[in-house]
């Protein structure tokens, strides 16, 4: 179906700075085509005034006016021959995309415990015995149990937690299961939801 005058944004040229909309972009395109420098200058000043009214919340910023003129230069693809009140040569830095961040890939021996628990195991290896270490051991052991319940589909074994804690701390931490009490963890928290029959 092809209706004259009806077109979609997907069929139109891509906007350089979409926050200003297509009408402002059309004004900039028109300003570039004006024959005299005086007309282009007047038109550019009017466009910047419109852009300023669109973003009144930024007026308090020190570089607000500079940014507006930079944006005008970008939208005109630096083809607008006028006397800019600011240096717009650095405007391309605004449009530059940052380099993608690398995802920190650390080798974790047992994935269900996660990176943070392995960092905790390393910390436990260096801690001196005392109340602080005991509290940290309690916290780590309970988190290990939660992780086992979550990834083991609701099942967990205290002996497994004690064994893993000793193994990953190079034997520095030994849980005495006859005296150590885990926090009460509801198995419902980690149970898989059952599908209702229709």
How would you describe the overall organization of this protein?
The protein is an all-alpha fold and 198 residues long. The protein is 46% helix and 0% strand. The protein contains seven helices and no strands. The chain has helices at 21-33, 37-54, 64-75, 92-95, 114-126, 131-151, 158-168. The chain is elongated and about 90 Å long.
Largest sheet: none
How many β strands by DSSP? 0
Give the strand content: under 5%
Overall mean pLDDT score? 84
Low confidence ranges? none
- What is the CA–CA distance across the termini? 43 Å
Topology, pairings included?
Elements: H1 21-33, H2 37-54, H3 64-75, H4 92-95, H5 114-126, H6 131-151, H7 158-168
Helix pairs in contact: 1-2, 2-3, 5-6, 6-7
Which features characterize this protein?
7 helices; 198 residues; single chain
Q: What's a concise summary of this model?
A:
This protein has about 200 residues and is mainly alpha-helical.
């Amino acid at each position: 179906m092809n209706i004259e005058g009806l077109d979609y944004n997907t069929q139109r040229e891509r906007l350089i700075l979409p926050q200003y909309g297509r009408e402002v972009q059309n004004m900039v395109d028109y300003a570039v085509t004006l024959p005299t420098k005086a007309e282009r200058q007047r038109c550019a000043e009017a466009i910047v005034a419109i852009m300023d009214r669109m973003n009144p919340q930024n007026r308090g910023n020190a570089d607000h006016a500079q940014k507006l003129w930079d944006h005008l230069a970008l939208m005109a693809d630096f083809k607008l021959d006028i006397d800019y009140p600011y240096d717009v040569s650095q405007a391309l830095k605004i449009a530059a995309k940052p380099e993608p961040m690398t995802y920190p890939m650390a080798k974790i021996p047992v994935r269900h415990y996660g990176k943070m628990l392995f960092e905790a195991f390393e910390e436990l290896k260096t801690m001196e015995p005392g109340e602080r270490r005991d509290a940290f051991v309690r916290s780590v052991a309970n988190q290990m149990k939660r992780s086992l319940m979550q990834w083991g589909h609701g099942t967990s074994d205290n002996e497994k937690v004690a064994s893993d804690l000793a193994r990953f701390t190079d034997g520095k931490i030994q849980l005495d299961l006859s005296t150590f009490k885990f926090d009460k963890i509801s198995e419902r928290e980690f149970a898989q939801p059952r599908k209702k029959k229709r």
